Hints:
α1 packs antiparallel against α2 and α6 runs antiparallel to α7 (209-222). With 306 residues, the protein is an alpha+beta fold.
Amino acid sequence: MIVGRAAGQTDTGRKRRRNEDAFVCDPPLFAIADGMGGAQAGELASRLAAAAIEEAAAAVSDKEGVVGVVRTANARIFQRSLQDPGVAGMGTTATVALVDERAGALSVAHVGDSRAYRFRDGTLEQLTTDHSLVGELVRSGRLTEDEAAVHPHRSVITRALGTEAEVDVDTLTVDLRPGDLVLLCSDGLSAMVRDDEIARLLGAADGDPHRAAEALIGAANAAGGEDNVTVVLFEVVEGEPAERTRASSDGSPPRPALDPDEETSETVVDGVRRHGAGKGSRWPALLLVITLLAIATFAVWWSLLR
Length: 306
Ligand code: CA
C-alpha cells in the first residue's frame, strides 16, 4: 500500500476573527495543531508546532520519531513562552500521523482534542482519545456523548503542547489497507459535525480527499462554523512503496509563518501546498479578464459598425 491523494484545508469559520489552527500535509507525515492563548499567542503556538513537525518530517521514520517530534515542538513552544511574557501560557493541540508504507501501518502521536479517524468500508472509527474535560467525563460515564456535544466547557482541553517543560504524549498504531481514508481534524469539525454525518460526507466524496475536505469544511460552517476548522485527509491505495524525496529533505527552510492578520485559506492537493490569500483573492483577476473581454468585444463591434 501507499499513500495516494492527500489534501489539507483550513478555514477561519464563521464566528472567529482569526485562525489559530495549523496543519502539515507532507506525505507520509501529516499533522494538525489547534492553538490557544490570548491575542496572537494561539496562532504562534500552532504555527511553531507545525513548523517543528514539518522541519523534522524528512527524518521521522517510526513511532518513536513521531513522539520525538511532538516533544521537540513542545519544548520550542515552552521556551518561546518563557522568553516572551506576551505569549506566556500559550499552547496547542498536536495530532501527528505517520504512514509506514512498507509495514502498512499508521502511527499517531497526539496531545489535546484534535482527532484522527480511519474511514474503512463506510465505517468511521475515531482512533484518538480526546484529552478534554468532556472527553474524560464521557469515558468515566458521567456524561453521555450527546451531553458532551452541547456542554459549555466542551472546548476545554486537559493536555496541551507548550504549557509545561514536559508533555505526556499518547500514541497508537493501526493497520492501513487500500481503500482506507484517514482524516485528521481540529475540534472545529468534530464539535460541529457528528461522526455519522462525517462518515456520510466521506462516503459521498468517493475517496477523493480534496472533495471530502471541501465537504467537511462546508458542513462545519453550515452547522454554525463556531470555531476554526481544519482537516487533513489522505487515501490509501495499492502500490509499491518507493523512496520518497520530499521538499523538506532538500535543506530548504520551512515556510514562513503566515501573516496573522491575513485571513488565509490554504489548500494542499497531492502534497503541493497552495496558499490563497482569502476567498476573495481570485475576484480582481476575474474582473480584469471580464473587463478586457468586454473592451475587445466592443472594439470588434465598433470596427464592424464602421
Ligand atoms: Ca479549536
